[in-house]
Amino acid sequence: MSTFRFQSLKESSRRQTVEVKELDRKSIIFGSNVFNDKAMRQFLTSEAYKAVKGAVQHGSKIDRKLADYIAMGMKEWALSKGVTHYTHWFQPLTGATAEKHDAFFETSFDGLDPVEKFGGSQLVQQEPDASSFPNGGIRNTFEARGYTAWDPTSPAFIYGTTLCIPTVFVSYTGEALDNKAPLLRALSAIDDAATEVARYFDKNVKKVTPTLGWEQEYFLIDSALAASRPDILLTGRTLLGHTSAKGQQLEDHYFGSIPTRVLNYMRDLENECMLLGIPVKTRHNEVAPNQFELAPIFEETNLAVDHNSLLMDVMQKVAERHFFKVLFHEKPFKGVNGSGKHNNWSLATDTGINLLAPGKTPMSNLQFLTFFINTIKAVHVYEELMRASIASASNDHRLGANEAPPAIISVFIGQQLFKVLENLENVTDGKLSPEEKTDLKLNVVGKIPDVLLDNTDRNRTSPFAFTGNKFEFRAVGSSANCAVSMTTLNSIVARQLIDFKKEVDALIEGKDLKKDEAIFNVLREYIKQTKAILFEGDGYSDDWQVEAAKRKLSNHKTTPEALKAKVSKKAMDLFEGLGVMNHVEVEARYEIELEEYTKKIQIEGRVLGDIARNHVIPTAIKYQNTLIENVKGLKEIFGNEFEQIAKEQIVLIKEISAHIEGINSNVEAMTEERKTANNLASAEQMAAAYCDTVKPYFDVIREHCDKLELLVDDETWTLTKYRELLFTR
Ligand code: ADP
Ligand code: MG
Fold first, then answer.
1. Which domains does the chain have, with CATH numbers?
2. N or C: which end of the chain has fewer CB within 10 A?
């Protein structure tokens, strides 16, 4: 007998390690497929070069004539590297990236004058077929027009034989149809707000840049094995499968060496990343079997977001060469750890200071505390919005399930800083005496060690943790586009810093306080107000759920519930007030995310029903028939004695029937619930119905299937098993 499962197992067991082409040293090849500073200097006129630089550094506009020159230089550079096509590369609201390739090649209508053409207008603007991207009702179909516009702050790059130009995607009425446009607006908002506050401490600061260093977790599965599982193929995760006897208990994967086949995949991938200017630095095994992590050196946030989106694409493509499939799903396997994408975040000034790193002097430490406490306050005020920013059908399996981090947003800061905040709470109201000031400087602010980085205790269960010189938003899902969480985080901190500045200035002017007195006074109040968000304990514990409820922190365990915060008045005021998104853009995103949630659960329901009925039941019946034949034979030989002799077989036959019944009746009931859900009027109602009435069947159906997997003869089972998926290298 040779089912697809056994063919796939054979194929995967015969895999050879794929050799990797050796490239030059990393420092030499780094960014060689990027239209970076070096390439620009070589291929652009000095005027064109200055125009790009001005746009990157000060957001200045590039006029049409210069755009033509830039396009010409870009084209020459691309042609010199064998490029034939160009595309406007963008991030539609589906989460993935999109591109439409056009050839440089053109001729006149009579076929004469063949030439490679690419001008300013093609560089600056393009019109992809916008009707095929989700828009949440922003565009009516009769004006299904949207355009992509060049984002000069993220350099063009070559992938394959295509020149990719990072762009934003907007409707003709000006609303953002993508993830990048709101992000750029949020980054500009926090730049303005943080620069104002940083200037309390150093008048030379002219720009503040939010930085992002993501850590991408993923699973690698042999491509033949992945293809043998319809659920992995269609939903990115296993919808059924009994847990393997051996899972991650021994942690031997985490501490073991990287398997050779995987190592070669990683080397190949890192080479590609180097060419594309993605500064990947660390690679290692993760806790679960076949789970790995990749992290770069942090970058300016917009570029880091682009690099992560690009990377996810590149990872899958390189994996094909090595006969792997990458699983980005947050929870591909039941019973083993899921995957996240920690977003490490900080703020850097153009004077070279990390605003979230403690300094060497009391004043620089006050600056650190200012940004530190304002961030905590922002997260406290907008904790629900933070939770909403990471909500998705797939991330629901981590947040709020039995896995970290919890659906409750809290901030971990470590004991040392906890004590500093406790001390600051006692700062005198109003003017400070010289003694008080000295005491503050020497004993409180001055006590923050600049080596905090190495001393910070780590709390792996916290969704938002301070780690010495940055905050780490750990609850972000592995399949997410970081733009969404980064737009939220940077917006809420921007809002908070604006409010902070107003309060401090009011104290300076109204109460005649010195600047540092005013800052101390406002920070003291913030510390008092934000205590509820600070949590140093075990985020996975049941106690925390109870405690968090007492503290009035939200605990939205499902996406439909969590997403509501996105359209609250508070969120609207935030985004509109900062000019990050208007209410149409906010509502459109809400609509799209609900729809996406519904579709994902809908697909999972269909696939599960299909596998349960068309794989599991026929296999179970086949095996049951063997048992029946066996019982019949025993009866023939032993006559009346057979009942005793065939006792176990008869029990099995009945058990199998009971599970088949269980599957059938539940698949039927689930299908009915789906039909009911499909007829609901609004996206909100549909998502809620899929969550509350359709999804609960998944576990019930799975339970029956997984029991059958244990009962049925291994030889006849058609679906590749957990142990095979997780332990094949
Ligand atoms: P881990 O969380 O696994 O212990 P580290 O604390 O070493 O790892 O840091 C992980 C990530 O933090 C890296 O990807 C790095 O790029 C990022 N990072 C470090 N400093 C900053 C910063 N100032 N801003 C943003 N990200 C940063
Ligand atoms: Mg981390």
1. 31-178 (3.10.20.70), 187-581 (3.30.590.10), 596-727 (1.20.120.1560)
2. N
